[in-house]
């Protein structure tokens, strides 16, 4: 069966009907890169969000939760980089609310229809004079098309090396519906609401409750299945906005095109998740781990996450070392049952372990494969039908260099 979506290679968060975006440099970053941005819908959009599980949560998360709780609608999302506004006490909360109020006034929308997100250094007060001056100029920077999307993507980056976007089109009720997304994330990335900021826009008509359920389910299969370094941050947030301007009948699980829409949304989230993993701080390659034959999908997820999170597995990938012992050691400590006599392991198509016994393989062929920019680890437990995918990156000297001097 073919895919139900069409990939839009040059699409971004402004590709769905009725969305504009933009960004500018307000002075939070030392460089001249954009550090303040926004996405705006021309009509209030149904909204959903997923947040970090870290108990220390940045002030913008509280503000965004309150906004969505009012009506489940958003017209705008305001984002700054260069400062997380986390662990900043009452002043940090006041600053996040002030950001929401100012952009709402500048756009002429209700405060509770604005979400706020921040990313950057933890524990430093926002330079609100700079943020406020930037917000004053931001509405005139909003635009449609690739320029608006690119400016916004630039505004949300921290240690990221590349902008991360994805876009697809699906047909719902005979109408063309577009789903797009942008994300940032490079360090402090770990499953269970991966450390990141993510923003999804769509012109589909879908109610907030249905969108929330779908977003959470898809997050568990995509953003919650990536890792860079095992750290979950204080600011993680994934926000989705659906403004209904495509003209379709409201999507619900009973709608005949629900599955097509869900598949398109999953593709966007999965592409963004993989882009974050590939762009891990200091990373040189993407690692994709597939676990099959588990007793359940949940067991497969636990094993895949443990393998992809292993510093030893990640280091072996960096060194192009076909050390399958590190893979089975990680699988064995994942906390779920497995039959230690029936495990197969492949590196790409190279079988290195069969029925838990070593298999002779060509080390030079394995070395050449592992030197590529993508490494696929495939583990078959031969216990059931459970399966899962997880993504991560290698652990390099560059990761230590970046994080040894992050504040400076």
Automatic annotation (TrEMBL):
Enzyme Commission code(s) on record: 2.3.1.35, 2.3.1.1
Pathway assigned in UniProt: Amino-acid biosynthesis; L-arginine biosynthesis; N(2)-acetyl-L-ornithine from L-glutamate: step 1/4; Amino-acid biosynthesis; L-arginine biosynthesis; L-ornithine and N-acetyl-L-glutamate from L-glutamate and N(2)-acetyl-L-ornithine (cyclic): step 1/1
Subcellular location(s) per record: Cytoplasm
Binding site for substrate: 158, 184, 195, 281, 403, 408
Example GO BP: L-arginine biosynthetic process
Site positions per UniProt: Involved in the stabilization of negative charge on the oxyanion by the formation of the oxyanion hole: 119-120
Site (Cleavage): 194-195
First and last residue of the signal peptide: none
Keyword Acyltransferase: yes
Superkingdom of this protein's organism: Bacteria
Keywords: Acyltransferase, Amino-acid biosynthesis, Arginine biosynthesis, Autocatalytic cleavage, Cytoplasm, Multifunctional enzyme, Transferase
Active site: 195 (nucleophile)
Tagged with keyword Amino-acid biosynthesis: yes
GO MF terms held by the record: L-glutamate N-acetyltransferase activity; L-glutamate N-acetyltransferase activity, acting on acetyl-L-ornithine as donor
Catalytic reaction equation(s): N(2)-acetyl-L-ornithine + L-glutamate = N-acetyl-L-glutamate + L-ornithine; L-glutamate + acetyl-CoA = N-acetyl-L-glutamate + CoA + H(+)
GO cellular component, as recorded: cytoplasm
Alphabetized InterPro entries for the sequence: Arg_biosynth_ArgJ (IPR002813), ArgJ-like_dom_sf (IPR016117), ArgJ_beta_C (IPR042195)
Main location: cytoplasm
Protein family: Belongs to the ArgJ family.
Role according to the record: Catalyzes two activities which are involved in the cyclic version of arginine biosynthesis: the synthesis of N-acetylglutamate from glutamate and acetyl-CoA as the acetyl donor, and of ornithine by transacetylation between N(2)-acetylornithine and glutamate.
Subunit-level organization: Heterotetramer of two alpha and two beta chains.
PANTHER family: ARGININE BIOSYNTHESIS BIFUNCTIONAL PROTEIN ARGJ, ARGININE BIOSYNTHESIS BIFUNCTIONAL PROTEIN ARGJ, MITOCHONDRIAL
Identification of the protein by name: Arginine biosynthesis bifunctional protein ArgJ
Top-level taxonomy: Bacteria, Bacillati, Bacillota, Bacilli, Bacillales
């Amino acid at each position: 069966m073919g895919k139900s979506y069409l990939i839009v290679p040059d699409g971004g968060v402004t590709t769905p009907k009725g969305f504009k975006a933009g960004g500018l440099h307000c002075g939070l970053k030392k460089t001249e890169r954009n550090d303040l941005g926004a996405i705006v819908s021309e009509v209030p959009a149904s909204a959903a969000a997923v947040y970090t599980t870290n108990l220390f949560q940045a002030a913008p998360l509280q503000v965004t939760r309150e906004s969505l709780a009012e009506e489940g609608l958003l017209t705008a999302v305001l984002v700054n980089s260069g400062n997380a506004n986390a662990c900043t006490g009452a002043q940090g909360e006041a600053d996040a609310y002030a950001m929401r109020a100012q952009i709402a006034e500048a756009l002429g929308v209700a405060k509770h229809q604005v979400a706020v997100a921040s990313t950057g250094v933890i524990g430093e007060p926002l330079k609100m004079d700079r943020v406020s001056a930037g917000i004053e100029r931001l509405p005139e920077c909003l635009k449609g098309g690739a320029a608006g999307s690119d400016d916004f993507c630039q505004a949300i980056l921290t240690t990221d090396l590349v902008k991360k976007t994805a876009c697809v089109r699906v047909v719902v009720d005979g109408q063309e519906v577009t789903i797009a997304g942008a994300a940032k994330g490079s360090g402090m990335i770990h499953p269970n609401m991966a450390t990141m900021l993510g923003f999804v826009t769509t012109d589909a008509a879908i109610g907030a409750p249905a969108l929330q359920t779908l977003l959470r389910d898809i997050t568990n299969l995509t953003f919650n299945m990536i890792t860079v370094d095992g750290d979950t941050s204080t600011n993680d947030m994934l926000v989705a906005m659906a403004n209904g301007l495509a003209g379709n009948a409201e999507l619900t699980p009973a709608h005949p095109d629900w599955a097509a829409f869900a598949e398109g949304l999953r593709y966007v989230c999965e592409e963004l998740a993989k882009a974050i993993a590939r762009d891990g701080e200091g990373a040189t390659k993407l690692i994709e781990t597939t676990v099959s034959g588990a007793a359940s999908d949940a067991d497969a997820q636990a094993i895949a996450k443990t393998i992809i999170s292993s510093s030893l597995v990640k280091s072996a990938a960096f060194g192009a070392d076909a050390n399958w012992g590190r893979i089975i050691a990680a699988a064995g400590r994942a906390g779920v049952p497995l039959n230690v006599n029936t495990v197969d392991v492949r590196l790409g198509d190279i079988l290195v372990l069969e029925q838990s016994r070593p298999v002779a393989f060509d080390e030079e062929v394995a070395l050449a494969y592992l030197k590529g920019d993508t490494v696929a680890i495939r583990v078959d437990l031969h216990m059931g039908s459970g399966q899962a995918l997880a993504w991560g990156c290698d652990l390099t000297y560059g990761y230590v260099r970046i994080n040894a001097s992050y504040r400076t």
